[in-house]
Amino acid sequence: MDTSLALTIIGIVLTIVGIIFNAIPKLANKQIMGDLAEEAVNPAAALRTIIGATAITVGFTALYCRDLPTEQASTLLTALGIGFIVIISAITLTKLRGFADDIPIPPIIMFIILTVIAFYAS
To answer: What is the pTM of this model?
Structure first.
């Protein structure tokens, strides 16, 4: 896979996720975490929008760097792949550390796919 295509895919996916988290943070939280106590709804939505902004930032970075020369793009893709492994680990550890009842499978699958794309193209 071409590095430009990989960075485009990663950039688009993360930007879309970030936009969704910013556009509808309360609904995203409800889908991810179920019903929250009333006093937790707004702080959780604030954190979701920050996560969304971070996803948009990384997505834009990937999109803007898609025309880098192959060597530099490969370095960026390797760094993104390692970062995605850190995110997968953090998501998985929420269950193991007792912060969540279940491991959320959809984001794990999404980040595994993005990790494979990043390492395959690098």
So the answer is: 0.90
Q: Rounded distance, CA 4 to CA 2, Å? A: 5
Q: pLDDT for 47-86, tens place per residue? A: 999 999 999 999 999 999 999 999 999 999 999 999 999 9
Q: What is the pLDDT of residue 42?
A: 92
For 37, the token pair is 């106590």
Nearest by Cα to 28 from 48, 14, 50, 12 = 48
- Neighbouring residues of 76: CB distance < 8 A, sequence distance ≥ 6: 7, 62, 65, 68
Q: How many CB atoms neighbour CB 42 within 10 A? A: 12
Q: How far is CA 7 from the centre of its chain?
A: 14
> Residue 41's Cα: distance from chain center in Å?
21
Provide the pLDDT for residue 97. 94
Torsion of the alpha carbons at 91, 96, 97 and 98, rounded to the nearest 10? 100
Q: Are 80 and 118 in contact (CB under 8 A)?
A: yes
